[in-house]
Amino acid sequence: MSSRDEYAVTGLLMSREAADRRAALSEHKALRVFTGGEIELVAEGSRSVVGYAHVAHHAARAPFRSHWACEVVVDPDAPDGVAIAADLIGGALGAVPHGEEVTVWAWRRDEVTAARQIGMREIRALHEMRRSLPIEERAPLPHGIVVSTFRPGRDEAAWLEANNAAFASHRENGALDIDNLRRRMERPWFDPRGFLLAWAGNDLVGSCWTKLYEGGLGEIYIISVVPTFQGRGLGTSLVEEGLHDLAERQGATEAMLYVDAADLAAVEFYRNLEFEVAFTTREFAPR
Fold this sequence. Notes:
The chain is an alpha+beta fold. An eleven-stranded mixed β-sheet has the order 1-2-3-4-11-5-10-9-8-7-6, sandwiched between helices. Helix content is 31%, strand content 31%. The mean pLDDT is 93.
């Protein structure tokens, strides 16, 4: 991609974000824009770039296979957004190496419509849930659990092991590695004080990593509990610890998080913590 295209794509992503009032791309894609090694396509209009597709490669641990995931961004002022999105999705599917798995994630109407029009099938949905802050009270920590903040340079290996154990059945979150973690720690928003770790003696058994956006929105970014400590109330305590820190220390007035729509128990868990569905992002696969 030329420097001219990079400049135009940057402007496109900014205008899309301003129009939607939320990030144009998911973080996994945003961290890899213009870094090389992945698939990036543009759609050009009469004067400028009117669409962009990013196809990122996701490594995976057994039993999952590695796969490619595509997201498309279309100029909010384009009169033929569905057609632009359909062309970009088609180009992305054709650019992935033959025989490798590829899916498309979409939540905006044009991209969802385009995926359906070209015959893709919906295989998964991801809810974004939100609630207001502050919270009224916090559940006590289970007996023997001590919460501390993340220590860069010391806690990386323990956190990766615990997090991947907690998400062993999740094909993306269960395959995080040190490079993936460091990419996030290098972002301007990273705050180790908002990265809470739950210890049982010398064993890391859970964590709640929070993220603060401009405008007072805070995110429960990654919440995890190792299998041997699940079902003991630690998850509830960690979420509430994170919400309290977001409101009291970081100044957030609203909180959000992502949850798989098919995980009805998790959706109900967050509803009990006063979260409600605000957006739904859908994953599509070729038929």
